């Protein structure tokens, strides 16, 4: 009996949040941003290698230094 009421409260809370347009838009925007950054981190070194005739180490180093501030910024938001 107790678990049924807990599940129903969770479902009710989730249903309320799903109807909030600001909540939905912010979550979709955050998901899109994460997917874009993940794709960039995965494929940009290969593009740099091909277009600018770089070694894999050089292109990886460049992309690593470019994506590091993004990681620190998101880590800070998770701490706050």
Written overview of the protein:
The chain is mainly alpha-helical and 80 residues long. It has one domain (21-79). The protein has helices spanning 2-18, 21-52, 56-79. Helix 2 (21-52) packs antiparallel against helix 3 (56-79). The two termini are 37 Å apart. The model has no long low-confidence stretch (mean pLDDT 82).
Low-confidence regions? none
Main beta-sheet annotation: none
Radius of gyration: 20 Å
Approximate shape: elongated
Task: Identify the notable features of this structure and list them briefly.
80 residues, elongated, single chain, mainly alpha
Spell out the blueprint of helices and strands.
Elements: H1 2-18, H2 21-52, H3 56-79
Helix pairs in contact: 2-3
Brief digest:
The protein contains three helices and no strands. By secondary structure, it is mainly α.
């Amino acid at each position: 009996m107790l678990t049924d009421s807990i599940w129903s409260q969770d479902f009710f809370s989730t249903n309320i949040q799903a109807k909030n347009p600001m909540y939905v838009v912010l979550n979709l925007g955050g998901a899109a941003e994460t997917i874009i950054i993940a794709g960039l981190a995965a494929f940009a070194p290969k593009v740099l290698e091909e277009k600018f005739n770089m070694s894999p180490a050089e292109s990886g180093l460049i992309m690593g230094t470019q994506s590091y501030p993004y990681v620190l910024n998101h880590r800070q938001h998770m701490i706050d």
